[in-house]
Amino acid sequence: MPDRRTVHIVDDEAAIRRSAGFVLKKSGYRVEAWASGVDFLKDVRHATEGCVLLDVRMPVMDGLEVQKALIEQGVTMPIVLLTGHADVGIAVRAMKAGAVDFIEKPFDMATLLRAIEAAFARLDDKKRYAASAQEAALVVASLTPRERDVLEGLARGLPNKTIAFDLQISARTVEVHRANLMTKLGVHSFSDALRIAFAAGLGTDRA
């Protein structure tokens, strides 16, 4: 792994910066740590190209605000969002804005490294990761109507209970459909399912 593969850790928790930095350095990455999104944005133009491990819950500017600011500045470094609070709505917003992945604290080493590897894979070959609307539509077409309804709800950022209420089914049934649709889509993570859903045009605002 080339030494110039740099991961920018942006997190207000010193313990997270230390632990994530230790794991990444041990795996061969170069690490630069930032205590706030504001500090990172001040220097990002001069920062080494790489990927960004970005905490969602931070004072002054949260992770989604930092992500938006990076996009507005034309910074194309891939982003992996990190949070200690499971929040489907935030995951949807992050993925729609282009985040590579979304992982929760406390994270394990394997999950962190997979997300960072995916970020660098996107950086290496953007064409490979450009979502094909046609391919996504074909995969989504393999779902049953009810599975598609559940995927639509997830892509709109709705929690399972709300989807269940809207579809007049139990929350447990939603969980079963969710597991089945992920199997049919051939994905193992929620973020990958969202990526396919967005590419297929699901999750758009309704009038």
How far is the first residue's CA from the last residue's CA?
49 Å
Biggest β-sheet: strands ordered side by side in the sheet: 2-1-3-4-5
| Total strand segments | 5
Helix/strand class:
alpha/beta
Helix content: 40-55%
Largest sheet: 5 strands, parallel
Strand content: 5-15%
Low-pLDDT residue spans: none
Brief overview:
This protein is of the alpha/beta class and 207 residues long. It has eleven helices and five strands.
Question: Which secondary structure elements does this structure contain, and how are they paired or packed?
Answer:
Blueprint (H helix, E strand, L loop, with lengths): L5 E5 L3 H13 L3 E5 L2 H7 L6 E6 L7 H10 L6 E5 L4 H9 L4 E4 L4 H16 L1 H4 L3 H8 L4 H11 L4 H8 L3 H15 L4 H10 L8
Parallel strand pairs: 1-2, 1-3, 3-4, 4-5
Word description of this protein:
- The protein has 207 residues and is an alpha/beta fold.
- Helices cover 54% and strands 12% of the residues.
- The protein is built from eleven helices and five strands, in the order βαβαβαβαβααααααα.
- It has helices spanning 14-26, 37-43, 63-72, 88-96, 109-124, 126-129, 133-140, 145-155, 160-167, 171-185, 190-199; strands at residues 6-10, 30-34, 50-55, 79-83, 101-104.
- The chain has a five-stranded parallel sheet, with helices on both faces.
- Helix 3 (63-72) links the parallel strand 3 and strand 4.
- Helix 4 packs across helix 11 and helix 8 (145-155) packs across helix 10 (171-185).
- It is elongated and about 50 Å long.
- The model has no long low-confidence stretch (mean pLDDT 87).
